[in-house]
Amino acid sequence: MDQQIVRFIDLLRQNEVRVGMSEALDAFRAAELVGLNDREAFRAALKTTLIKGDRDGKTFDSVFDLYFRGMGEKIRAALENPDDKRRAEESQLWDEMAQALDDQEMSPLMEALLRNDTARLEQMLQQAAQKTGADQIASPFQEGYYSYRMSEELDWYNLRFQMQQNVARLRGKGYRQLAEKLERVGDQRMRMFQEVIKEYVRREFEKTHHDFRKRFQEKSILDKSFFSVNPDELRRMEDVVRTLAEKLKARVTMRRKRTKRRGTLNVQATIRKNIGLGGVPFHIEFRRKKKERPELVVLCDVSDSVRQASAFMLRFVYSVQELFSRVRSFIFVSDIGEVTELFKEQKDPGKALEQAFNGAVINVWQNSNFGKAFADFHRDQLHTINKRTTVIILGDGRNNYNPPNDWVLRDIQQKAKKLIWLNPEGKRSWGVGDSEMPRYLRWCDMAEEVRTLNQLRRVIDSIVL
Predict the structure, then answer these.
(1) CB neighbours of 271 closer than 8 A, spacing ≥ 6?
(2) 394 pLDDT higher than 60
(3) Cβ partners under 8 Å of residue 370, min gap 6
(4) Which pTM was predicted?
């Protein structure tokens, strides 16, 4: 049983579930106490000891079912005739055929198929998978290849020939009805078992990639432009933002714990500590520098051309706001207004965004005027910026030929820890027409094109990690 649990824990880790040595030892002890007789008690014992949070619960359930359920039920369901009378007749088929062909040697696979011996068939599948490497399948595109390899290992193609030979021999001996039954049942069970082989390979892949389709969709969504999403993709993007935020928070938490625990070697303090011990460094001293959480100020252009990108920016920021000591958010078109309290009042970011974009804070139907919005921010908020503050501006920089007031960014950059500009437009468009990006870029510590969630994620990562 221990080997099964070791393999199961390995599968959880391959599916991005963090399981430490202490959790594994607890699982062994719990499994020994409850045993294997009560499946649900066994599941609960493993889940209680191995899973630390709700986020990994669904993964555990999927992998547990795939690993511990086995293929016996699937084989039985595929091969058994739903008709009770037919099932009773077919159960005697092997004995009748063996008696009629007493001098004929037949393969173990044929016997297991005709006897409907699910335990033996499952064992044969496992052995074939190990010999062909199907239990190490790494891509869904390999399912056909490994199904073919397993069929060869099971001597599947020779089995069909044997089945046809036995039908001919039975007819030659005058067992016409028995020959017809063997031909009908044998063909059906061989066809169904071929599907079972494919299902077995598919399940071997799902053990280590149980959410492959979800992750594949997530990956495609990550690189989808904000400007070309349909309503269904928009909903999936919102789910992906939550997933990304949870992963980022977990990574940052682990990194901060390691930094706090380890620190760097303090040579002078170590020498002083061990003077009385002849200079032998029995006691090691570390220099632990406390890393302060950064402050974040976000200015989002919410004009029609970039509103979608700003929505995801604000949604992402408020999903990870506990990673910052303070988060303040502003939206602007021509006027600028703070939406920090709006997001605090509305626990659902979607509702807060809906209010902000419907004109509850500023007039969102004006023509863009970055210069005016920047000047107003300078007048009212510059005093709140300090050397712990990272300022992010998200906008296309298209100012409708109004005064750009780029001197505001100069003053912000001098006071802030970092000034970052995120532009949803392609870089080739920066400076074309009414774009004032070349003027604004002079005062930015970093300027990036952000048209996708992947690009947005990388920027947020660089700030908090």
Answers:
(1) 279, 281
(2) yes
(3) 301, 332, 395, 397, 398, 399, 402, 404, 405, 436, 440
(4) 0.58
